[in-house]
Predict the structure.
Amino acid sequence: MEMTFENALARLEQVVRELEGGKAPLDTMLALFEEGKNLVDFCEKALTSAEQRVLKVTENGDTVPFENKK
């Protein structure tokens, strides 16, 4: 199955819950931490890519904030 932003975020939430539970052995906790870091990196790249696509399709390349302009 191909990793999507939504899948990565859902898995990251699971990893955080498991880490917060603190009941796993140290080796398992370290593996979960490493997986979580990889998921964060994946999500950051996906968000950066989405931001670049939004900027690309805006008029004249102007940045458009997500809040209302006055």
